Write the structure tokens for this entry.
Amino acid sequence: MNILGIELCDAGLASAREGAGGSEMIGVGAPEDASLGWPGIARSQGGKLVFGPEAEAAWFVHPRDVSNLFWDKLSHESSELSLDGTPYSHSQLAFYFLRDYLKRITAATGAPDKIGLAVPGRYLRDSATEEEKIGLLLGMAAELELPLTRITDMACAALGEPAARQLPRGAPIIHVDVHLHASEISLLRQEDMLVRKRYHHVPQVGYAQILRHLKNAMGNRFLRHTAFDIHEDRRLEQAFYEQTRLFLLGSEASRKEFLYELNTGRRSYQMPMTRLQLATDLQPFDQALLQGVSVIASDSGTTPGGCIISLTDRASRLDGFENLLREAGFSRIFRLRPGAAAMGAASLAMDAPIVTELDEMPVEITAPLQALSTHDIPVEFSLQRLVISDGPAPVPSHVIIDGIGHPIGANGICIGTRHTHTAVDVSLPEAFDAVGDYLLRIQRDGTHLRLEAPGDKPGTVETSLGAGDRLTLRGGGRSTELLFAYCPAPGTNDTTPEAD
């Protein structure tokens, strides 16, 4: 069967397909934009509507012809776009957008047999909001004849099994997501089901505000650096915005340093920029998110050290945010893969029936933990410690897998299978894909290094690590070895690491 999950986030809609090997993402745009999703933006152009990246490409060139509010303000209210003088409502733009998006998805996958839908938490924050927004979504589903099985809160969909298997059981989870015009922070607990207990809305902390702020801040630096004002020409301003977007959301190749470049026809202007400078500009947004996390933790009686922080891919891309969380005591941080809610929605749809009576559609702020699990191949691990007679082993700085050394950063490192729902820094050898979702988390704890690995029972097994220790993993008829090593910094003769 062709089973799809759709993550209805205005910062970037994402879709996943459920199969025998688990969930896989479906790309509808350029390969470099696949992890960012399909932005919820529309443009009125020549009497017709265009959507997604094509509409975003005109945001600063033709601002009056572009709308990115219709998913956030989903209602019958008039939008800023019109046809022949008659304004489109926000719900009309959302319908046309969804119809266009589904055509692109079905062109890549074929007609779906089932669809699970993950929606923003704000759609389900109270009964009046739910009645309006879910009612409109159900009307769209009926008009488009979608084989819909259920509608689930996005945080619950993202954190159900198999993602939840990577998280220690019992601890409350604070889930952080960044959308286009706001951020959402949810408190979830793993009971008989995964249950959303609290919801906190952080307005004006979305990618629309973040990218506009960054464009202006970087533009001011560009003016001081080159004596050229990016606002002199709307097309150049749009080009500068797109480079800023790439700087913030692009590949690892652009993570350390980025080169802005504008060509006017007469000459070329350039400005190098570092991630540290980017993090400085992001501080107001990072601080607002940290305050939201602290508020929801305090209101629920949760201490920073006693909870787990779950970051969507969108939230983890904000430079400096993880460091702020750690400084505030929130040290147990997990990063989810792009489209985690779409994959969760697809998994949920697999065993759920199609609902033809829309007033009977399940609309949930829970997720059954076991129903989402698609793999259960056990992985055994054994740790062989290096015994040193003259004192403790140095704290490892690298982990070596298949002869390749990977640095363990200030925030630690996550190692797992390529298709785990939780984001990994280093993938285990391809042969381990057969075991499904598996994650090892190595975290710095002061001057110590701690390994967190899934145990035989729900939860994790924790142990400290020293240089020279070897970890052997066996599962699905495969095995591999991880060697932990300490490498002195170049130009030094140190044999022990400095304390953090």
